[in-house]
Amino acid sequence: QVQLLESGGGLMQAGGSLRLSCAASGRTFSSYAMGWIRQAPGKEREFVAAVRRSGSDTYYADSVKGRFTVSRDNAKNTVDLHMNSLKPEDTAIYYCAAASSYTGLTAFLRAEYWGHGTQVTVSS
User: Fold this and answer.
1) pLDDT of residue 111
2) How many CB atoms are located within 10 Å of the residue 101 CB?
3) What is the C-alpha radius of gyration for the chain, rounded to an integer number of angstroms?
4) Could you give the CA distance from residue 68 to residue 77 in angstroms, rounded to a whole number?
5) How far apart are CA 79 and CA 121, in angstroms?
6) pLDDT interval class at 26 (50, 70, 90)
7) What DSSP element (H or E) covers 105?
8) What is the pLDDT of the chain when averaged over all its residues?
9) Which helix (H) or strand (E) holds 68?
10) Rounded alpha-carbon distances, angstroms, from residue 50 to 14, 41, 47, 107, 124
11) Res. 52 pLDDT band, cuts 50 70 90
12) DSSP category for residue 75
């Protein structure tokens, strides 16, 4: 079992930056691929970014590539999402997720564990 708690959301103007953090409970954090998924009002959930267990490989949606950076600290059981050059279309609830393995963007949407989400709102 893994419990995830997100923090760091808020309101930001377009072009600004935010950092989301996810704290995980449990001793097996390093056994999971970690990542972020978002859902905007009226839209389906969208993969944002993921990082493999060791932190050596990262993956991004095309819509955030070059602007967002995902990282993890296995010693602290945390995973962060640094978001730069924010756009109004980044407005969504951002969920931290843990999967037993990373096998692709679509598959990560079926991650086994999810946090409750944190709201990110970007104004134009």
Assistant:
1) 93
2) 11
3) 13
4) 20
5) 20
6) confident
7) helix 105-108
8) 95
9) strand 68-73
10) 24, 22, 8, 11, 27
11) very high
12) T
